[in-house]
Design brief:
Layout: E1 9-14, E2 37-43, E3 47-48, E4 54-55, E5 64-67, E6 73-77, E7 80-86, E8 90-94
Antiparallel strand pairs: 1-2, 1-7, 2-5, 3-4, 5-8, 6-7
């Protein structure tokens, strides 16, 4: 991955849910909702406060996070869909 997030930005990939339900039904891609969990691949250095100091991010690389369905900006690079979002877009850390 050749993306280095700046400031309080985070690069993540959505964690896909199972396509098959316990009842055996397969849900087509067009009917599935976007996953609300993501794995953090890279984090920025933190945002700069009003006093000029840098506040580090609370989220680390490798963390599993909860995000909103439409949070961040989706980009495709080398055939992989990445999600670039701000730390404020993260709802919580899983685990």
């Amino acid at each position: 991955m050749n993306i280095r997030p700046l400031s309080d930005h985070i690069v993540a990939v959505r964690i896909e849910e199972k396509q098959k339900k316990s009842s055996g039904l397969v849900i087509p891609d067009t009917a599935r909702e976007k996953p609300m969990q993501a794995k953090v691949l890279a984090v920025g250095t933190g945002r700069i406060l009003d006093n000029g100091e840098r506040e580090p991010l609370e989220i680390n690389e490798g963390a599993r996070v909860l995000i909103g369905k439409y949070a961040g900006s989706e980009i495709r690079l080398d055939g992989v869909d990445y999600l670039v979002l701000r730390e404020d877009d993260v709802l919580g850390i899983v685990g």
